[in-house]
Amino acid sequence: MDNRLAADLDGFPDLLTAARDYAAGVLDGLGERPAAVPPADVAAQPLPVAGVGAAQALEIFRERWAPGFSGSAGPRYLGFVTGGATPAALVGDWLTGTFDQNAVTRQDSSAVGLELETVGWLRSLFGLSEAHSGTFVTGATMSNTVGLAIGREWLGAQKGVSVARQGVAALGDIAVLSGSPHSSIYKAMSMLGLGRDQLRTVPLAPDREAVDVAALEAALASLGGPAIVVANAGTVNTVDFDDLNAISRLKAKYPFWLHVDAAFGGFAALSAAHKHLVTALDAADSICVDLHKWLNVPYDAAIQFTRHRDLQVNVFQNAAAYLTPPSGDPDLFHLTPENSRRLRALTAWFTLAAYGLDGHREIVERNIAAARRFGDRLATLPGARLLAPVRLNVVCFTVDDVPATLAAVARSGEAFLTPTVYQGVPALRAAFSNWRTTEDDADRVITALGKALAAG
């Protein structure tokens, strides 16, 4: 054994203690760590030949790279839709690396059993019936890709072909309809061979990002054949929700696969005031939910649900002499693109076991309250203007000089926001989804924004 590797093995407990102490210090200072850090100009070093051992590697990391890391796990990082890692989720993440389970087969471990238990917990959290099965994937993009891949196979079945065996060319002309599709839908269609140009956008309701259901019905009626409909349970700009009840009722009249992108909006199920928005989620054929957003587990973790596991197996089954065949309750490598992966479910299991439904409901409702406070206080800032109602946890607004304001807020270290364009207007988004965030943090961000506007 390499002498440095052997020394690290002998000193493993001390190494873990050093890493723990360093991590504890980082977490203790996270509330005041700059939310955003300008990328440092760190010169790349050549690959070490001999190496320096783990303790010295930790010191090098602390000196060279850690100062340039943002406070993205903290309470005032409001860019994109980014959660953090609850204490229990972080414990789960550390133990995920410790046990290093390849969570795809029952041949050698109970890891798959833990994942299936966690899937059941999440199914209950989102109000889904047992008709939905689920598996863990890396993020919303892969969850959308898996859902659309199963939908693609369903389209083939309606036409008497198997895309998994014959290829996407066997489908012929196809239609994918959506009102405000997330960019990952286009990416998924590109990867699946459906083609970005095959996505047909449907008109929206006035002053909304929600699809006009009458226009969607007209589009379905004009097709004369099966289609895929991508509905939104929470758009990224304004957290608008398509009318899932009305859309699901259209399935009685028209043949279509209903995929619901509920990446973070699915967590509206935890809010008494907003759960009506997702009561029809169970009617979907496939569902995307991102977990490293509002469940506050570390990257990368998401889940996909479907009512059609048989079609899922058609797409993703993997045959080899050393693997179990996809009969009965299939091993997980028959259900997603990956043949091997880490036990992503453990972080979700830990945070759900630790805080339960009530604990995560409190996080969701506190974030919603912080977003509303932020939206209300925007009215006190000269030059700032809401572009849409604060429907859930994202505030979409504009100022006179969006790029300059974004840069000034980021430089302050107080917050990080991301840009967007809404109805042709350059805008900013403040997304509240971190378990640490309070209304006091919303006030601090408003103060930083006010200073940026005054200086601009």
From TrEMBL:
The molecular function terms of the Gene Ontology recorded here are: transaminase activity
Q: Which Pfam families match?
A: Pyridoxal_deC (PF00282)
Q: Which domain of life is it from?
A: Bacteria
Chloroplast: is it a keyword of this entry?
Answer: no
InterPro entries attached here?
A: Aromatic_deC, PyrdxlP-dep_de-COase, PyrdxlP-dep_Trfase, PyrdxlP-dep_Trfase_major, PyrdxlP-dep_Trfase_small, Pyridoxal-P_BS
Keywords, alphabetical: Aminotransferase, Decarboxylase, Lyase, Pyridoxal phosphate, Transferase
State its cofactor: pyridoxal 5'-phosphate
Which family does the record claim for this protein?
Answer: Belongs to the group II decarboxylase family.
PANTHER family assigned = GROUP II PYRIDOXAL-5-PHOSPHATE DECARBOXYLASE, MIP05841P
Name this polypeptide is given:
Aspartate aminotransferase family protein
What organism does the record attribute this protein to?
A: Actinoplanes ianthinogenes
